[in-house]
Design a protein that fits this description.
4-stranded parallel β-sheet; 11 helices; 13 strands; 7-stranded parallel β-sheet; alpha/beta; 318 residues; globular
């Protein structure tokens, strides 16, 4: 029997194999949950190497599971930092996820994007909590992938039975008028009945919204250029710098945020090019992109889910 006297607990899982999107979304959700009920605790399970750089509200903590990286060329995974095989890393992750769910005993479990987790690593935790009667929620961004590609991926991973048998609700962080992510995918009516559209996840400035000191040196309006995590953002940065190189009379400065996963060689080459312009500043990473965006005249971005939500929240030209 659950203890009715104890405070409520939410567990969030994010596989975080690439970029900043998943951890940023989970952080936003956790901060809102904690703000809505000050007696509630939220624990995030994350493989992101930068999760500790973010600011969280009181009542939120995280468990950092060993990281993996996805090779862009092959789509295969490898251990991010440990000098052990990926299968060993995944076994450790699976056990940590299940044991955390077992000991933490959440009143709600939210899984971000990957219904079964990375290579099925979240399934033991889902089954354990299902047996205990814990509500299980899958959270999806509104744009997932090309429907044909997503259908093929989910068939290969045998996802639909989990949607049918394990999850109680499927939250879609968007609007049905803009996109329905399960369109074109064969799922039973019982799964479609579980879908709840939440609207886009609004972003607020964090409690302490200091901006990097480099920005204070820029006189006049500036364009914020963000490559997200940066792992696939080199073309975007190249195009922006090429624009300044071809037209010295652009009336705005620029603040370029490379992202922590851009390669060091690409980053250094871009820094050299940017240094030729007195009105361009560069940053590798900031945990407070919202503060920069609020001050920016406009935004040039990759257009991933989280940046899209920030652009909407701060009402910026982009």
């Amino acid at each position: 029997m659950p203890d009715s006297s104890r405070s409520k607990r939410v567990l969030l899982y994010s596989h975080d194999s690439f970029g900043l999107g998943h951890v940023s979304r989970c952080r936003t959700i956790a901060n809102y949950i904690a703000a809505a009920d000050h007696s509630l605790s939220v624990l995030i399970l994350s493989g992101s190497p930068v999760i500790g750089s973010y600011e969280f509200r009181s009542g939120i903590d995280f468990v950092r599971i060993p990281g993996v990286v996805k090779q862009i060329e092959t789509g295969e995974y490898d251990s991010a930092n440990l000098r052990v095989g990926v299968e060993h890393t995944l076994e450790m992750r699976t056990r940590i996820i299940r044991d955390t769910a077992d000991i933490y005993r959440p009143d709600l479990f939210i899984v971000d994007k990957e219904p079964l987790g990375l290579r099925g690593e979240v399934v033991p935790a889902l089954k354990l909590l299902k047996e205990r009667g814990t509500p299980l929620v899958l959270g999806l961004r509104d744009v997932m992938d090309d429907p044909a590609a997503l259908a093929q991926e989910w068939q290969r991973k045998n996802v639909v039975p989990a949607l049918r048998d394990l999850y109680d609700e499927i939250w879609i962080y968007g609007l049905p008028q803009i996109n329905k992510p399960l369109t074109g995918i064969q799922v039973p009516p019982s799964v479609r009945h579980k879908m709840v559209y939440t609207g886009y996840l609004r972003r607020d400035l964090p409690l302490h919204s200091d901006i990097p000191h480099e920005i204070e040196e820029i006189g006049g309006p500036f364009i914020l250029v963000t490559a997200g995590g940066g792992g696939d953002g080199a073309d975007l940065i190249d195009w922006v710098l090429a624009a300044y190189e071809s037209d010295p009379h652009i009336p705005y400065g620029a603040v370029i945020v490379f992202g922590p996963f851009m390669s060091a060689a690409e980053r250094e080459a871009f820094k050299e090019r940017a240094a030729r312009f007195p009105n361009i500043r560069t940053l590798t990473f900031t945990n407070n992109l919202g503060a920069l965006m609020q001050r920016a005249a406009g935004v040039v971005a990759m257009g991933g889910y989280n940046t899209f939500c920030e652009i909407l929240s701060f009402d910026k030209k982009a």
